[in-house]
Every structure is written in structure tokens, then in C-alpha cells.
Amino acid sequence: MGDGTHNFPEIRRSDIFRTFANRFARYKYLKHLCEDDHPVLIVESELVEIAKSKLQELVFTKISNDQRKVFKLLLESWIRAVAQERILGYDESDDVKEAVMISIQNESLASLFPQVH
């Protein structure tokens, strides 16, 4: 398989992937609890951007251009699953967990794959 699909499981198991998914979960959780200009939320947003950049670099080096469309769908579902798993592990009320998990599900992850011409 020279098309990059053999790298799908490698990316799914990578620390880079898990770091992004966990940062994304934490950001959505903090966004639920904090004002938009809260310093902790601002720092977490920057950490999400750093993790996103590393994930993009990994994907762009491991997945061929023609496989990215398919992989994007998989990656988004994996990110949501790991992020929601993370939220379920928080010592928080079910109402808060549910609200954050809905927020995770509704968040656009389109910026993970910017259009490259």
C-alpha cells in the first residue's frame, strides 16, 4: 500500500494525535467554565494550536494527498472519540459532561486540513 493508508493506525496510536485530542478536550471543557478572555483559556488555546500544528505535520508527511479526504473523516471521528472519553473521566456533573461532549461533537475541525494548492 503505497497510498499512505498503512499509516492510519500509526497516526491513531501516536502521542501527537493523543496530545491534540486531549488538549482539544481540555480546551472545550475550560471554554465551558471560563470567560473567553480568561488567561487559562487563552493559554490552552495556544497549546491546542501547537498540538494541531504537530498533528498536521505528521499527517502531511504520512498521508498522501489523495488519501487525505478519507483520512480527514477518520481523524475527526477519532479526535472526537478520544476527547469525549477524556471528558467522561473528569470528576464533573453529568450535565457539564454532556454539555462539553455536545460542544466537542459540534465543533468544526475543518482547520485541521487547510486547503493546499
Query: If you compute it from the alpha carbons, what radius of gyration comes out, rounded to the nearest whole angstrom?
Result: 15 Å
Question: Count of helical segments?
Answer: 5
What is the number of E strands?
0
Q: List low-confidence stretches.
A: none
Biggest sheet overview: none
Which structural class do you get from the secondary structure elements? Answer: mainly alpha
Write the element-wise H/E pattern from the N-terminal end onward: HHHHH
Mean pLDDT reading: 90
Beta percentage is under 5%
Tally of individual domains: 1
Helix residue percentage: over 70%
Separation, N- and C-terminal Cα atoms: 25 Å
Shape: globular
Report on this structure.
The chain is mainly α and 117 residues long. The protein has one domain (5-106). It is built from five helices and no strands. Helix 2 (15-33) crosses helix 4 (68-88). The radius of gyration is 15 Å and the shape is globular. The two termini are 25 Å apart. The mean pLDDT is 90.
What is the topology?
Blueprint: H1 8-13, H2 15-33, H3 39-62, H4 68-88, H5 94-106
